[in-house]
C-alpha cells in the first residue's frame, strides 16, 4: 500500500521510499538520440508505431524502471515500477489530465464540437465524474449484469447463426464483437427489459452505428504516424476518411440517443438514472455518445484476445465448462488476459506540480507515461510472465497477490480511472462464461498471433476461431 505523501523542499515524495533532497536527486536515465527527432529512428528500426510497446519494453530493460525519451515531437518520462506508478496517481491532483488522441482534438476544434466526459477537464469534469461514479461504479450494480446478459444472448445467437464450414473459421468475428459491445451499451442505456424492443425498432440504426464506430477506429489508426494538423492542412485522404467517419458516427450516435432518450420508463437503466439527476439533455447526449463510441474497440478487442487465449488452452476451457458457477476462474481468466494484452498498454498523466518520486525529480506539467505492458510482464512480479496462467491470481497460489495487482492496472486507478471499468469486467466475464457454456473454441491460426498497436492493442493478423456447439 502506498502511504500518504509528505512535502519536502516543495516536492511530494513517497514516504516509504528513501528520501532524497533536491541536491541528492537522481538523474533520470535517457537513451542517446538525435536533435529534434530524438530516438524516432530507433523506433522505426524496431518496427515503428505498431511495435511501440516492445520498443519501450526494451528501453526499460536497458535503462531501468524510469527513463526519459523523446520520440518525434513527444518528450515523456516512462515508468514501469508499480510503486512509482502508484506515486504518479497519488500526485495527479484534483483534476487529473491525460493525453487525448490528436486527431480528435483537431477534429473537435475544426468542427466546434463539445464532447463528453473523456474530453472534459477541471471542475466540469470533476462534477460530472462524481455523478457518473454513482451510476456506474457504486451501489448495487445487478442492473448492469442483467443488461449485459440480455445483450450477450444476442451475441450467442449471432455466433450460432454465422455460417462457415467445419474446416474454416468464423469470418467476421471482429464485427460480431463490435456489435456485441455496442449492444451491451444500448442495453445499459435502456435497461434489460426494454432492450429487445429497442433492438428491433432501431435495428438498422444500430447496425449502421456499429459499422461507423468500427470505421472510426480504422481511420484514426491510419493517422498515428503523421501529425493530424498536418494531415488536415495537406488535405490528405486519410484525414478526410477520418473526418467523414467521425462526423457520420457522431451524428448517428447523437440521433440514436436523442430518439431513445424518452422511450423508456424503466428505472434500472442509465438514461433514467441520468434524467432523475436533472442533468441537461445536451449533456446526457454528449456523455452517452462518447460512452458508445469509446466502448466499441476497447471491449471488442479485449474479448477477442480472451477468446484467442482460450482457444490455445483447451484444458482451461474444460475447467471453466465443468464448473460454470466458478466466477473466480472467469474473473482470473479475464484478469490474466488483460495482463498479457492490455488494450491500452500505456496510461498517461500530466502531473500538476513538481514531484519527487524516489529521488527522481519530475517537473510540473511533464508528460508521464506508465508502461503497464512492461510491468504486467515483469518476471519480478510474475513467474513465467509470458505464459497464460489464470490460477496465478488465486490468493493461495504462492505468488505475491498484492504486488501483482499493483503491477497490472488495465483500467488505471485514482480519480480518473476508467468510468466503464465495472461495465467491462461484468460483460467480459459474463460473455466468457456464456460462450464456453455453449461452444468449444478451436484455433485455426497457424503460429501465434502477436500484439501490435493501432491506437489500441490489436491482433497482428486475423484471429481464426471455430465455435463448435457442445
Descriptive report:
The protein has 470 residues and is an alpha+beta fold. It has a domain at 114-313 and 415-470: Cytochrome p450 (Orthogonal Bundle), CATH 1.10.630.10. The protein contains 18 helices and 12 strands. The protein has helices at 40-45, 52-63, 82-90, 102-111, 122-136, 142-161, 173-190, 192-201, 203-221, 228-234, 237-260, 270-276, 281-311, 314-322, 327-340, 372-375, 401-407, 421-438, and strands spanning 5-8, 11-14, 66-71, 74-79, 346-350, 355-357, 360-362, 367-371, 439-443, 451-454, 456-459, 465-469. Strands 3-4-8-5 form a 4-stranded mixed sheet, with helices on both faces. Helix 6 crosses helix 8, helix 9 runs antiparallel to helix 11 (237-260) and helix 15 crosses helix 18. It is globular. It starts with a strand and ends with a strand. It comes from Holotrichia oblita. This is Cytochrome p450 family 4.
Which characteristics define this entry?
disordered N terminus, globular, 470 residues, 18 helices, single chain, Cytochrome p450 family 4, four-stranded mixed beta sheet
Amino acid at each position: 500500500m502506498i502511504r500518504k505523501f509528505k512535502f519536502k523542499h516543495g516536492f511530494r515524495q513517497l514516504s516509504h521510499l528513501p528520501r532524497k533532497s533536491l541536491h541528492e536527486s537522481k538523474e533520470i536515465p535517457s537513451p542517446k538520440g538525435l536533435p529534434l527527432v530524438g530516438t524516432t529512428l530507433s523506433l522505426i528500426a524496431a518496427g515503428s508505431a505498431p511495435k511501440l510497446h516492445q520498443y519501450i519494453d526494451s528501453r526499460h530493460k536497458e535503462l531501468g524502471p524510469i527513463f526519459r525519451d523523446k520520440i518525434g515531437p513527444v518528450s515523456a518520462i516512462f515508468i514501469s515500477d508499480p510503486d512509482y506508478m502508484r506515486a504518479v496517481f497519488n500526485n495527479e491532483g484534483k483534476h487529473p489530465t491525460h493525453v487525448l488522441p490528436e486527431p480528435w482534438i483537431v477534429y473537435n476544434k475544426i468542427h466546434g464540437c463539445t464532447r463528453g466526459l473523456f474530453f472534459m477537464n477541471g471542475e466540469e469534469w470533476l462534477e460530472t465524474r462524481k455523478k457518473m461514479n454513482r451510476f456506474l461504479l457504486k451501489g448495487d450494480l445487478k442492473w448492469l449484469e442483467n443488461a449485459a446478459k440480455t445483450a450477450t444472448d444476442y451475441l450467442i445467437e449471432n455466433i450460432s447463426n454465422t455460417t462457415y464450414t467445419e474446416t474454416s473459421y468464423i469470418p467476421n468475428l471482429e464485427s460480431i464483437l463490435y456489435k456485441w459491445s455496442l449492444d451491451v451499451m444500448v442495453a445499459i442505456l435502456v435497461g434489460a427489459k426494454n432492450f429487445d424492443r429497442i433492438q428491433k425498432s432501431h435495428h438498422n440504426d444500430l447496425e449502421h452505428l456499429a459499422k461507423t464506430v468500427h470505421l472510426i477506429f480504422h481511420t484514426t489508426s491510419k493517422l498515428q504516424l503523421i501529425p493530424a494538423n498536418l494531415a488536415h492542412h495537406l488535405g490528405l485522404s486519410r484525414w478526410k476518411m477520418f473526418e467523414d467517419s467521425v462526423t457520420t458516427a457522431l451524428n448517428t450516435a447523437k440521433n440514436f440517443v436523442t430518439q431513445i432518450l424518452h422511450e423508456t420508463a424503466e428505472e434500472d437503466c442509465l438514461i433514467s438514472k441520468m434524467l432523475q439527476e436533472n442533468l441537461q439533455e445536451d449533456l446526457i447526449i454528449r456523455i452517452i455518445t462518447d460512452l458508445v463510441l469509446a466502448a466499441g474497440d476497447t471491449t471488442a478487442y479485449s474479448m477477442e484476445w480472451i477468446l484467442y487465449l482460450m482457444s490455445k488452452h483447451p484444458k482451461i476451457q474444460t475447467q471453466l465448462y465443468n464448473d460454470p458457477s466458478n466466477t473466480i476462474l472467469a474473473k482470473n481468466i479475464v484478469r490474466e488476459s488483460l495482463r498479457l494484452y492490455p488494450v491500452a498498454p500505456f496510461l498517461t498523466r500530466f502531473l500538476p506540480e513538481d514531484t519527487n518520486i524516489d529521488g527522481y525529480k519530475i517537473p510540473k506539467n511533464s508528460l508521464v507515461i506508465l508502461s503497464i505492458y512492461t510491468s504486467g510482464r515483469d518476471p519480478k512480479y510474475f513467474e513465467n510472465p509470458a505464459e497464460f496462467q489464470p490460477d496465478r491470481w488465486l490468493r493461495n497460489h504462492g505468488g505475491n497477490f498484492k504486488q501483482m495487482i499493483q503491477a497490472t492496472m488495465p483500467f488505471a486507478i485514482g480519480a480518473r480511472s476508467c468510468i466503464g471499468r465495472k461495465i467491462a469486467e461484468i460483460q467480459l466475464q459474463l460473455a466468457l462464461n456464456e460462450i464456453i457454456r455453449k461452444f468449444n473454441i478451436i484455433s485455426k491460426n497457424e503460429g501465434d498471433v502477436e500484439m501490435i498497436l493501432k491506437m489500441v492493442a490489436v491482433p497482428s493478423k486475423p484471429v481464426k476461431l471455430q465455435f463448435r456447439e457442445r
